[in-house]
Amino acid sequence: MRPGNGPSRWVALECLRCGRESPPDTLGRCGNCQGILSARYSMKGYRWGTMGTRSLWEFQEVLPPVPDAFRTSLGEGSTPYVPLAHLGREVGLPHLLAKLEGTNPTGSFKDRAAALGVSLARTRGARGVFTASSGNAASAIAAYCARAGLPCVVMAREDITASKRMQIGMYGARIVPVRHLFDTEDTLTQALRAAGRAAPDFANLFVWAPWNPLLVDAMKTIAYEMALQGPLPDAVLVPVAGGDLLYGIHKGFSELREAGLIPATPRMIAVQGEGASPLVTSFLAGHEEVLRGTRADTVAGALRVTFGGEHALQALRESAGTAIAVPDAAILAAQRRIAAREGIFCEVSSATTVAALESLRTSGQLGPGDTVAVILTGLGFKDHPADMVGSAPEASREISEIDAGLFHGTHGEPRSRPAP
Ligand SMILES: [Zn+2]
């Protein structure tokens, strides 16, 4: 048995607010105080994995127990953690890195949650799976259901784009458009409860800790990988919708510190679009809860939320972090910039983190000595606005017209030193 590959170190599912234990298969919040639940593991003597299996299950000791026979994997996780030397120099952060979650099997970080969620559904004897999503989570869950041989029903917003419908449908999932699905937390709750009543033998895999508290533990493996891959960041920028990813990464680093494997946890920095920033607004105003917004208007499609989870607020405070909202124009410019400078085409929502760097540097919240990591959650193909166009191709030429003139003055200055 390799280090990090022993049985689960599971202790209990506990409330983040009052500490009360709930049964391990609880769906929803604490019955005592309505706080968000989170699993606790015994970290004493933990020695992390080797990233030898190239899947989430490398970290099985710090995941909920799942018998081998019910594990579902497509090789999720083990994503690259790469320096951004050119971009880092430009924004005055020479120690800038990115975690490339777009290299997961369906193109986003949600594969980690889907692998764990579908495996847990099988462990509990579910006959199928349903979820509510119009994007990354739906594609991920549909793919892992196909892998596991389970039927999958995806409730989607009415205006789901053709490209998303294509990817979800390709995996054989049934897509059911639902009016007002994501309008508010209440409409979403109504839809998920109705689906649960209609199909009691199907597992509800809505990926959000207030509904499914265990799936955060799949997200936290991102922190384990970053600590293993190095360097350990001083600050981590995370695009935030419901808050699971930010909370999960903080939870992972906190466990590693508890195990004595890292000296300190990085500052967590939440990034949202200006028109949909309930977490940022609530954090900056010092609230204990995430206030519900009235509109969700941002070009970052995966972050179009009017509500959020207080577990992310807790992670920001515990890590002495901060939160920032960025405008649409900056997000789109950042998406092009990291693609052109670093060869990384990330989805619009991921680019929010890149868009926030200069403001944070200018305000002094990030300094040139800091090691800074951005979490790029998905591939650029996944989610883009309809009006986004590439640069137009030049007019066609004859083969005889291909000459040296083609190669001058159109490709920018060559870089002074080779990329790392
Ligand atoms: Zn409680």
Molecular structure report:
The protein is of the alpha/beta class. The protein has a domain at 81-107 and 215-376: Rossmann fold (3-Layer(aba) Sandwich). Helices cover 31% and strands 15% of the residues. The protein is built from twelve helices and 13 strands. Strands 4-5-13-10-11-12 form a six-stranded mixed beta sheet, sandwiched between helices. Strands 8-7-6-9 form a four-stranded parallel beta sheet, with helices on both faces. β1 (10-15) and β2 form a beta hairpin. α2 (110-123) crosses α3 and α8 (244-258) crosses α10 (310-318). It starts with 9 loop residues before the first strand and ends in a 44-residue tail after the last strand. Residues 15, 17-18, 20, 30, 32-33, 35 line the site of zinc ion.
Characteristics:
420 residues; 13 strands; binds zinc ion; six-stranded mixed beta sheet; 12 helices; single chain; Rossmann fold; four-stranded parallel beta sheet; alpha/beta
Order of helices and strands: EEEEHEHEHEHEHEHHEHEHHEHHE
Could you say what the CATH topology of one domain is called?
Answer: Rossmann fold
Structure ligands: zinc ion
Strand content: 5-15%
User: What's the architecture of one domain in CATH terms?
Assistant: 3-Layer(aba) Sandwich
Instruction: Compute the number of strand runs.
Output: 13
Largest sheet: 6 strands, mixed
Summing up helix and strand content along with how strands pair, one would put the structural category as alpha/beta
| Cα-based radius of gyration, to the nearest Å | 21 Å
Which strand order does the major sheet show? 4-5-13-10-11-12
Q: What is the number of helices?
A: 12
What separation lies between the terminal Cα atoms?
35 Å
Helix content: 25-40%
Instruction: Sum up the overall morphology in one term.
Output: globular
